Here is the input.
Amino acid sequence: MLPCAPLKAPPSGQVDYWDVTTRAFGVRVSQAGSKTFVAKVRNRRVTIGRYPDCSLAEARKKANGERSSASSSLLPPMHMLLVQLVPFEAFDQPPGFGGREGLVE
Here is the structure.
């Protein structure tokens, strides 16, 4: 579990605290003491919301949604999956290749 209230602000900069129950989810605490929920999606840090405006349970749910939408967007659109048939002769042939000679029918 990742309790947000007791997280201390660093003396300078920011520090990330990663959750042990929700993968790639954590809280970034700034030197001013502000706490922001973040998720790692495709090697980027995505801001989920600020504590206490966004609860820990809400932030976890949003982080899981971010990751699932990112993983579904990895698939190309359906029209990209369709295969276009090209005649054999349309391919560039290496020098000395005589077309279909030598192919077993």
The helical segments are 56-72, 78-81. The chain is about 20% helix and 25% strand. The first strand starts at residue 14 and ends at 18. The beta strands are 14-18, 25-30, 35-41, 44-51.
